[in-house]
Structures are given as C-alpha cells and as structure tokens.
Design a protein that fits this description.
The protein is α+β, with helices and mostly antiparallel strands. 44% of the residues lie in helices and 12% in strands. It has 11 helices and 5 strands. The strands form 2 sheets. The protein has a 3-stranded mixed sheet with strand order 1-2-3. A two-stranded antiparallel ribbon has the order 4-5. The protein starts with a helix and ends with a strand.
Length: 225
Amino acid sequence: MAVDNKSNLRSTVKDQSGAGKIKIGELLRKAGQISSYQLDDALAAQKKSGGRLSSILLRLGHIEESTILNFLSRLHNYQSVVISREPPKPEALALLPYEIAKKYLAFPLRQIGKSLQVAMAEPTDTGAVETLQAAVKMPLTVCVATEKDIVDAYKTYYKISDEEHQSFFTSVGAEDRDEEPVTQIDDFGTLASEAADGMEIASLEDESGGDQYSASDAPIIKLVG
C-alpha cells in the first residue's frame, strides 16, 4: 500500500508547462531570455557554490525577477501569485513547516479540497515538486511567485530573523567567478624596457615607410625560450 500511495502522489504532479524535466535555465535559454554564455556562467557558479539556478541568474544580473515570473506564467501556464495580496491560511502554514518550505523555496497558500496550493520560484523542477509533495504527504497545486515575494513571506508568516531573511539574498557572482586578474599599466615604455632581458620585441612597420603611428603598428611582444 505504501508503494501505491507514493505512486499515486507522483501521478498527481501535473506538468502544467509541458516542459517535462527541462530545468528553468534551459527553458529561458531556448526562449531567448538568456544567452548560452549567461546560462553557462550561472551553471558554473551553481557547480561551485550550489543554489538554485534562477536565484544565481538573478544575482549575476543575467535576468530580471519579473521576467522569470511572466515567462512561466504566460508561456508555461503557471498561475502567478503575489503572496502579499493573497495571505496564506493558517492551516496551510501548519501543513508545510518552514524547514521544509525553505528547502524548495516554496510557500503554502491554502488547502483546496485534498490538495495544498503552494507557490514556488521554480515550479518547472518537477523533481523538486514530487519530493515536496512526498514530504507533505498530499497532492500539490503549484503556482509561481518571485523569490523575493516568497522569502519576504517567510519573514512575515514564519517569523524568521532578519539574518535568516538576508541569507537568501547573499550575493552570488563576483566572488564565485574565476576572473583573470587585470594589471593596470601606467607606463608601457617602462614595462617594455624592464622586460627586455627576457623578451624580444619585434616591430611591425609599414613597408612603404612613413612616420605615422597607429594602434595597428603597436609592437608585438614575444617570449624568448
């Protein structure tokens, strides 16, 4: 019976978007909302530090929060909600404790019949929806809300601390990127002179002669083995 119940719960997760197991990042890229470079950048940061891809895309400045909401609502048929305008029912809060809710960046809204209506920032992650559904042991009706709206609701209704609240918005990006160090050069002539012992400087000159100098005539610096 336990196996049957688990199977029944899984079958109630309706793929409202038709997106199947495709994750939010790939959906946004295919729709032209982000570039392949931006997706790869976010995936690299996710691999290094963990976290949800939509959150990382936001922190890196690759997309606006409203874009994700409108994209999922208009193109993938998820009902969008503004939690501050639709306060949750007390019984819904009791059905989804904070420690479980934050794990999936989900927030309970109300019980509708035998189902629990929840708002999620990434409702396209059907694996997460199934796992959350198994945790609460009842079918879910999934809506989409912005990450900020959900986290603000945690503070309002679960009474989390300011520190906990701010932890959701920890900057992801500059410290997670492997950026090449940039050295500022104030006097190229001095630098070239100091490097002369280990380098051979070959100058490109116009065969026709002339004294004019342009950026394309800059010397090429080659390492001498």
